[in-house]
Amino acid sequence: MANTPRKDSAPESGVLQAKPDFAVAEHGDHDRIVMASRKPDGSMDQIAPEFIGDKDVALAAAKEQLAVQAASAVDVAARGVSSKEGEDGVGSSAPDADVQALKDAQDKAVKAAEAQAEHEVNERHQGLGD
After folding, report:
1. pTM here?
2. Whole-angstrom Cα distance, residue 49 to residue 42?
């Protein structure tokens, strides 16, 4: 069996680059995804993402992912909120206004996140990847 000699230098064609050109990836490459990876601000962390596979699955995943992230962001923003107890140190059975306000803010953030997910999937879905 003959062995092919190894070439220690770059080919004459110039295929190898001394310094990578990331502009090529930005304009020519893209990611095919079923579920997005997210940055802390909720934006997608892929290059020109294209959703593939079942659209309903991609939409459900994006809605859940963004809803959980949005509700968590509301919690983080409101960490200084504490419930107020009665003067005797015993809480009441009445709903806490601070907790209800936090719940309302979470619900609003979840609705906005679900709308964002629906927009992203509808805009970028490319079918079942056939």
Report:
1. 0.48
2. 14
